[in-house]
Amino acid sequence: MLLHHPVELLGVLLAGLLVPLKHAAEVERALQRRVAMVGSSVLLAGPHNITLIHSVQWEHLNGTASHTILQYERHNLTIHMPYIARAHLHASNGSLLLEDLQESDSGIYRVTVNRAERESLTVLLDVLKPVSHPQLWSRGLVAKASGEVLCEVAEGRADTFTWKKDGQMLPPDRSYHLSGSLSVLHLRVAKKSDCGSYSCNASNGISWQETSLNVTVAGLSPPLQDVLRISVVAVVFAAVSGWGIIFPVCQSEKLRIRGELWRWLSAYTCGLVCISSILAGTAGILWMREEGPSIAVIVPEIFLLYVIVITFLVAFTVTFQPTKLIQLKSTAAQRTMGYAAPGGVLLVVVTSSFHMKNIHQRHEEGCTAFMDVTTLVVSTAAVLALPILAIFLCYHTTQGWLQEHDSSCADKERSFEMSLPISMDPDLTS
User: Fold this and answer.
1) Most exposed: 173, 226, 318, 349, by fewest CB within 10 Å?
2) How far apart are CA 34 and CA 16, in angstroms?
3) What pTM was estimated for this model as a whole?
4) Per-residue pLDDT reduced to its tens digit, 163-179
């Protein structure tokens, strides 16, 4: 029969859909919303269209459970736990006064007046603590990397977080809320323009608080800061070893260091060149790990490895097997060993300077102060220079002793000659 009346069937279906919507609209109108602070009191009003009240029942709907607060019937009032001494009924209009509110009192309250007439009203109560001052901190703010600025409320539940930068409101899609107490502002690719004063405003229905933080974006990540430190130390090693190589060459042939002191000076300077090459190579590897492989870094790494091997062999041979150097007859081998240390010094200085220049350019992409390496340079140079100074001091002390010894021997010979008797000429005596 319904198949023959499709229009009537459509009307029945539409009516069935409109009934729940109408009911939901009535419930929405009947639902009142109230916000109160913890520790305060709130008055929940009853239905306004009731002139004569015979019975009243208030209930607290918290989740799926229903708890009766009080019942009023013919001048008989019953208040249930835990609302004794906290709940007060105004029988004339059915309103409920709740005192000393706690967060657990949040939920839906329903009042039913005159059971026979089933007049009811629902009230949504939200009991809140005032929000505390938000705590702001940043995380991972390095140029060309993603970072975050976090805003957390220690006490109270914040319903809304708003962000500002230098007094200008930021779009809501820049941040997201993890909970009622934490909001995160996401910086997808941090850059120098992201530096500035950020403020976070946390609010709920009864209070609001705002805190500001001066945010800086670092130009250098921790690995690149390590590259800078290693490069600086490598240059200091190379400079001190270069001093140990050049100073003896500048001396005259007569005063040049020889013998045992020359052996120790050569071993020490070659060792410094070897260590500085290792440091420069390590800085290059860390740089490529952070920025990716590059021909400008790979080629010097190969030459640094060659310098490391040669200078290590020279330092080891000079220290433990010096006679093998004397027996070495190959001119090519002698030149290789002779030029390895000076060439290594130059290579380390050029390579480390390249890294420091690139690091300085990366630093300019942030807004933090450049890392101070003065203390590192001075302390490293002072420690490395001590053995060379000791060798030179020992050399000059030895030279002074030899000069005094030679002078003393000459004086003794002169005194001996003067003490001899003058020989007489035989012709004169005759």
Assistant:
1) 173
2) 33
3) 0.68
4) 999 999 998 888 877 77
